[in-house]
UniProtKB/TrEMBL annotation:
Gene3D superfamilies: Helix-hairpin-Helix base-excision DNA repair enzymes (C-terminal), Hypothetical protein, domain 2, Nucleoside Triphosphate Pyrophosphohydrolase. Its cofactor is [4Fe-4S] cluster. Keywords: 4Fe-4S, DNA damage, DNA repair, Glycosidase, Hydrolase, Iron, Iron-sulfur, Metal-binding. The gene is mutY. It is an enzyme of class 3 (hydrolase). SUPFAM superfamilies: DNA-glycosylase (SSF48150), Nudix (SSF55811). This is Adenine DNA glycosylase. It comes from Kordia antarctica. InterPro entries: A/G_AdeGlyc_MutY, DNA_glycosylase, HhH-GPD_domain, HhH_base_excis_C, HhH_motif, MIG/MutY, MutY_C, NUDIX_hydrolase-like_dom_sf. Its EC number is 3.2.2.31. One of its GO terms (molecular function) is oxidized purine DNA binding. Adenine glycosylase active on G-A mispairs. MutY also corrects error-prone DNA synthesis past GO lesions which are due to the oxidatively damaged form of guanine: 7,8-dihydro-8-oxoguanine (8-oxo-dGTP).
Length: 345
């Protein structure tokens, strides 16, 4: 059986109708690949459509304010992707005359572009023989060749990249790369793949050896850190509130949030934190009530945020206060966005 030909044939018969498959424009391929990192197509597609409508060219994205880019990205998560996207758009306009590099090695020099994204752009847009290796590809190769080397180990990364080079169709790398990714997403799915109708079933070693369900192998993740976030939602009689921009290199850099009191455990008596709250919001006269009686747990890749929203009412005028009517204009984490909709300012 010719692996690459079977995969590509399957692709032409079964591929989903997606907008980035109708172009070889590196800007749009780059945009789709960055958006779909750690994101399902169904979730990423509306964002791709919003971005291409708002920023039809790399010049439009480069000219945008970062806050506007982050606002459009809101809800997609992993916000460093959006910041890198904006940075790279400006880099391409300022240093590459608005033209994307046309080789894998040159693409790797762009911020936020790693092996996978560089391989995708180089092969799809410029027909370079450079295989993509993403989660879908790892799964297909691990099962078909019955390989149990952990895919997130140094050995695994090298092994699967080498294998991907061996199976790629050198005459049609663009369609082969898209085919094997689509095959993993639609046919060789993580859970309950339908092996009975798989065109590769007769030669799949993982199926033959009854190991499909345990492949690919992945090393255990880093231990999850628990944090307790107490958001102080100030509401003044002048219909104003307070928002602050998250600084530094931690989560949600560049996004806005309500003033935050972070504690080492769940807050059972908020009065104990009176002095800290006064300092954080720079107000002394206020009343405070708990909004959500049950803690909301927001799960990130390596952190669980145990979150409580506290409504802080005051008659004081707010220094740097913003109108409640303006609050939806700010880019915020989805955790804050959901609260804003629930509270309905």
């Amino acid at each position: 059986m010719n692996f690459s030909k079977e995969i590509t044939h399957w692709y032409f018969q079964n591929k989903r109708d997606l907008p980035w498959r109708k172009t070889k424009d590196p800007y749009r391929i780059w945009l789709s690949e960055i958006m779909l990192q750690q994101t399902r197509v169904a979730q990423g597609l509306p964002y791709y459509q919003k971005f291409t409508e708002e920023f039809p060219t790399v010049y439009d994205l480069a000219k945008a304010e970062e806050s506007h880019v982050l606002k459009l990205w809101q809800g997609l998560g992993y916000y460093s992707r959006a910041r890198n996207l904006h940075f790279t758009a400006k880099d391409i306009v300022n240093n590459y005359n608005g033209e994307f590099p046309n080789t894998y090695k040159a693409l790797l020099k762009l911020k936020g572009v790693g092996d996978y994204t560089a391989s995708a752009i180089a092969s799809i847009c410029f027909d370079e023989i450079e295989p993509v290796v993403d989660g879908n590809v790892y799964r297909v190769l691990a099962r078909y060749f019955d390989i149990d080397i952990p895919i997130n180990s140094t050995e695994g990364i090298k092994t699967f990249k080498k294998l991907a080079f061996e199976v790629i169709d050198p005459k049609d790398p663009a369609n082969f790369n898209q085919a094997i990714m689509e095959f993993g997403a639609v046919q060789c799915k993580p859970q309950s793949p339908n092996c009975t109708i798989c065109p590769l079933a007769s030669s799949c070693l993982g199926l033959k050896n009854k190991r499909v369900g345990i492949l690919p192998v992945k090393l255990k993740k880093t231990k999850v850190k628990n944090r307790w976030f107490n958001y102080l939602v100030v509401v003044s009689t002048q219909e104003q509130t307070l928002l602050e921009e998250r600084k530094g290199k931690g989560i949600w850099q560049g996004l806005y949030q309500f003033p935050l009191l972070e504690t080492t455990k769940e807050v059972e008596n908020i009065e104990k934190y009176q002095a800290e709250i006064e300092e954080i919001i720079n107000i002394k006269d206020f009343s405070i009530t708990q909004f959500n009686k049950k803690i909301k747990v927001h799960k990130l890749s390596h952190q669980h945020l145990h979150t409580t929203f506290w409504i802080v009412e005051t008659a004081n005028s707010l220094k740097n206060g913003i109108s409640l009517q303006e609050i939806r204009k700010y880019p915020v984490p989805i955790l804050i966005g959901n609260f804003i909709e629930e509270f309905n300012f």
